[in-house]
Amino acid sequence: xKISDIKIYTLDAFRTNWAFIKVETDEGLYGWGEATLxxxxxxxxxxxxxxxxxxxxxxxxxxxxxxxEVYRDSYWKGGPVMMSALAGIEIACWDIAGKFYNVPTHALxxxxxxxxxxxxANAWFVGAREPEDFAAAxxxxxxxxxxxxxxxxxxxxxxxxxxxxxxxxxxxxxAVRDAVGPEMExxxxxxxxxxxxxxxxxxxxxxPFKPMLMEEPVVPDCNDSLAxxxxxxAVPIAAGERFYGLYAWNDVLRRNCVDIAxxxxxxxMGLLTxxxxxxxxxxxxxxxxxxxxxxxxxNAAILQLAATTPNFLIHEMMLTDGSFRKLVxxxxxxxxxxxxxISDKPGLGIDVNVEEIKKxxxxxxxxxxxxxxxxxxxxxxxxxxxxxxxxxxxxxx
Length: 397
What we know:
Blueprint: E1 3-12, E2 17-25, E3 30-34, H1 41-55, H2 63-72, H3 80-101, H4 105-108, E4 116-122, H5 131-142, E5 148-151, H6 163-180, E6 185-189, H7 196-206, E7 213-215, H8 223-232, E8 237-239, H9 246-254, E9 260-261, H10 271-283, H11 296-307, E10 315-318, H12 325-328, E11 335-336, E12 339-341, H13 354-358
Parallel strand pairs: 4-10, 5-6, 6-7, 7-8, 8-9
Antiparallel strand pairs: 1-2, 2-3, 4-12, 11-12
């Protein structure tokens, strides 16, 4: 069996653009991968086209050999575009392999250690600005049985926080904690905003609310700064979505930069390298929570990987993306008691409706992390909730 073609489909997903990659073979089998970046989509498409000539003709079952040789022969290594392009192709090859052997991908990655994983909800706070807005949304999410919430309470802040900005963030977190009670895990997202002393100051202000973690507290271009924050923080520190591959992670772990690792499967060249990163973390007693703010193929792939990862901690889930998510794939998320169930279907267990994708052409989307518009309300009339059969009364449903 040989790879006969590689295609990339970039589609508008409201807050970003998803990038789906289809790998086809000369035996009729095909697989789906994802390489969503949230930016630089045209560069990603060009990079996939460049790698196409190096990968077409290869055996899709020889994943390790393909990654080693293509990475070796790439003069400029690392970075989000290159790593994500290879990841999307690699994930699709794992999908093909599962279909070829008629087993779920997790069976090829070492087998399941668990049947389900605890999840935390992201993107549950659509439209919230003030503490009472976040509190009201959090109560409705809790009513669904969700047991962990993540969000960014810092608005437009960058590098430093004024007293008023700090007080507002504390009020938001406090309002959510009061709304959901002590049993709910809360995770604080920082989006790489702060310098080291501001990050530590924020950790001390938020510590009374007992967050599970603070994510990306400092700008992700200085591991020394991150290590200093981890040493002085009053809250466990998580990071990793902007570290690219084994060599970057080796430095992060050697410097003791994180309490919780958050590798991105795209930025680590796919499932195989991400599993190696997780093993490096395991050797350092660092739990892993794979970064997952992306589309349905990403979600399916990470669940397969999480099933096989001994030190896996918790799974990220974008609670709402838009009603189109159910149209562009046959994703079937199964939610039980605050957890997501691992699929046992062959491969990743997901397929894509290309005709629906074509209805949502690429639309440039600017990142909103530092503009104060991260909680934009979605287009009027668009409703969506993952969990069919639940009596959902979200503000966005």
